[in-house]
Amino acid sequence: MTDMVDKFGSNEGGEFGVAPSGPRRSFPIELLPKTSKISDGRVSIGGVDLGWLAHEVGTPFFVYDEEHIRSVMRRLKRSFVGEVAYASKAFLCRELARIVDEEGLFLDVATQGEIFVALSAGFPASRMIFHGNNKSSEELRFALEAGVGRVVVDSFDELDRLDTLAFGPVRVWIRVTPGVEAHTHEYVMTGQEDSKFGFSFNSGAAERAIKRVLDSSNLVLVGLHCHIGSQILRLESYRAAIEVMAVLVRRYELAELNIGGGLGVPYVGGEEAPSLEEWVSELGRYAEQAGIPGAVRLHIEPGRSIVAQAAVTVYRAGTIKRLEGIRTYVSVDGGMSDNPRPVLYGSGYDTLLVERAEDVATEIFCISGKHCESGDILVREALLPADLAVGELIGTPVTGAYGYSMASNYNKVLRPPVVFVKDGKHRVVVRRESLDDLLRLE
Ligand SMILES: Cc1ncc(COP(=O)(O)O)c(C=O)c1O
Known about the structure:
The structure is a single chain. This protein is α/β, with parallel strands linked by helices and 442 residues long. The chain is built from eleven helices and 21 strands. Helices cover 25% and strands 24% of the residues. It folds into two domains: 29-65 and 309-433, Lyase, Ornithine Decarboxylase, Chain A, domain 1, CATH 2.40.37.10; 66-307, Alanine racemase (TIM Barrel, Alpha-Beta Barrel), CATH 3.20.20.10. Helix 5 crosses helix 6 (156-165) and helix 8 crosses helix 9. Strand 1 and strand 2 (42-45) form a beta hairpin. The protein binds pyridoxal-5'-phosphate. Pyridoxal-5'-phosphate (PLP) binds next to helix 10.
């Protein structure tokens, strides 16, 4: 297991980016969404100037490049031999569900709420894959009535409940924990023996679950599933999992195998991750080498690698506090409520001034949020121009995954809007919360 080396520093193959050291003349454009441009220091995405957008919608806001999302989905579909699902936990709203549908992907959903949002966008239930380690009877009933395409069974309790609730044939995958420790942060490592997810291969539980489904007259075993973790930067981690899955796929002559998601992305300048094409080609190669018959339909379900780099969060600098010989804090108008990843995993991000992206960055600032926690730090070491001033717009790129979807109202801070941009136009797909929204549940 990879230990967390330093809460904010590097963790080999883990969740953490290392702060770049200065001076830096230009921001690494490869961290920005596909259609981003920097001209006279001003950043635009999808033809929309981010400084202008800040005036239109206020700060903070998430801006997503629609072209980026679509092009990643197309690249995956083009290069992968099997089916591609989008893991909606990374970020879901109705507009995104419609894009996933238009691009012909499956959708990984893990709760009734995710199914509900996707259904309300018109996403066909038949292309939904229903996950979750603790699906309630209510959730299972809801999913069955909606007609979800596959239920990924995670435990014996769930198997019993599903069997009782089924009112017709239910297509099932068994989630297997292959006993593999992926090189990533322990909180997002899911394929190891000691896990709350799935049936263990090594203990024989996976085979008992398979037999239990085969004995059922309602449940139809169409395949197996595994997901070894998230933010995986070393593809080798998948090989061992696929070898384990191959044993079961062959033994029970199964038609489908889902290898999960998990491909990592670079978060800071200088960090590297395998490309989408390298990832899917290695998965195909590992499957072939493990003797998985060509007729077996492979599935993958990435989330982060589809949306992380598609978005930038834009904040406004509020107060600047210089502590001589210690550090300079720059507090912004958001924080752990719109991006809890730094607090949860010690994740690193890069930063840029979206209206002065070409000014030489020479000084390290600590970008902190507005919450009542000393730990509410968004970027521990942000390399920015030394004359950074109150009121300037600070962007944190690569915030499209597990940011808004994990957002909260901590301190009754209003959740920011989500804006999609394309062809010089913007549309607010999730509006900013209002003060009235804070009262709507009381
Ligand atoms: C079962 C399952 N599939 C897919 C994913 C998506 O992973 P990622 O966003 O790392 O691609 C997750 C996320 O943890 C997951 O739990």
